[in-house]
Amino acid sequence: MNILVTGGAGFIGSALCRYLVADPGNRVINLDKLTYAGNPASLRQIEALPNYRFVRGDICDEAAMADVLAAERIDRIMHLAAETHVDRSIDGPSTFIETNIVGTFRLLQAAMKYWRSLPATAAERFRFHHVSTDEVFGDLSLDDNSFREETPYAPSSPYSASKAASDHLVRAWHHTFGLPVVITNCSNNYGPFHFPEKLVPLIILNALEERPLPVYGNGTNIRDWLYVDDHARALDLVATNGVTGESYNIGGGSERSNLAVVQTICDILDQKQPQRSCRSYRDLVAFVDDRPGHDQRYAMDTSKIERELGWKPLESFETGLSQTIDWYLANSWWWRPIRERNYRGERLGRAVAGR
Ligand code: NAD
Ligand code: TYD
């Protein structure tokens, strides 16, 4: 199986590459533009493997994508490349439109032409797996039911609107042109190699540096958290066994308010790495201005993937978070250069730069 992973130098893409190369029957070609969010260091442990190859490239470049598909005789595309940070999409939406919508369109066009050129057995095997988010479904209140696959799309932010648009394109290329696609929509991930502009790694690293821990608004917004390796396993399962034309919800079944997430991180750090002053890291929590248009709650109904494909998360939020914190404590070689770039004034996201 020759698998093209787009965005494989990012947080989830690198976890997926690490997962896929463990099967010697897979050849993984990781295509990534290496934006601020892409980091070759996340792939250090697999970069010398014979069944792994990195290609620097842009999904918006249709001709380059066509070349890679043909040269590497790709059987499966797993499309993760995207702009992903909601705060950045508020500050500057244009790259989100360019990469998430136009880039997905160009990749679909290259994929369709390639797929049509394949002999029947290879065309039968080919899959285009589009990796998306729960945020396309919009906002839930506390007593609303969780998102199901049929829940109408109602994205709120420039990020989620761009991802919703890309989902629609992928579905249209299936209905209109017959391209064999599967779509997954997943909840918030956390784990090792997570870029420290997102909530979990930002809070861990700010705490270790005894800096304020920014909580937007009153901290009551709720997300459903999934350990990244559980997501990688779900993605492989859907790409391999999912029904063409279908979408699958993926989630952790771990709804937590942002304040609860931050406080849990503080409590674990109080145990693992107490402050010299013996004060709790909770004292560093700082309530700051809310994100404009901040969705109150996301929650996923994952009964379809559980019933049809037998997937369930292996990590609970507590076990996954504890492992994640252990990883950040042991791997400052990975995150310290990113933090230093930030302190030198390079813009690494609203929350990191501003505080
Ligand atoms: P990330 O921001 O960590 O990584 C994105 C990667 O895409 C980076 O390596 C970047 O260099 C690359 N990239 C950006 N533009 C590109 C382009 N034009 N061409 C090629 N590569 C490009 O993102 P992530 O958190 O790993 O998310 C991966 C995917 O999963 C995204 O599609 C995202 O919408 C989706 N998703 C993320 C989450 C989450 O909690 N992080 C949850 C559900 C779905
Ligand atoms: P984030 O990690 O940016 O993911 P997303 O916006 O895709 O869900 O944010 C997760 C939640 O944490 C979201 O409700 C916003 C909130 N948040 C904070 O309270 N403080 C922060 O510094 C950041 C980055 C996020």
Fold blueprint:
Elements: E1 2-6, H1 11-21, E2 27-32, E3 52-56, H2 62-71, E4 76-79, H3 86-91, H4 94-117, H5 120-125, E5 127-133, H6 158-177, E6 181-186, E7 188-190, H7 199-208, E8 213-216, E9 222-227, H8 228-241, E10 247-250, E11 255-257, H9 258-272, E12 285-288, H10 303-309, H11 317-330, H12 332-343, H13 350-354
Parallel strand pairs: 1-2, 1-4, 2-3, 4-5, 5-6, 6-10, 7-9, 8-12
Antiparallel strand pairs: 9-11
Helix pairs in contact: 1-8, 2-4, 4-6, 7-9, 9-11
Briefly say what this structure is.
The protein contains 13 helices and twelve strands.
Description:
With 355 residues, the chain is an alpha/beta fold. The protein has 2 domains: 2-190 and 227-250, NAD(P)-binding Rossmann-like Domain (Rossmann fold, 3-Layer(aba) Sandwich), CATH 3.40.50.720; 199-222 and 255-295 and 316-350, UDP-galactose 4-epimerase, domain 1 (Alpha-Beta Complex). Helices cover 43% and strands 16% of the residues. The strands form 3 sheets. The protein has a 7-stranded parallel β-sheet, with helices on both faces.
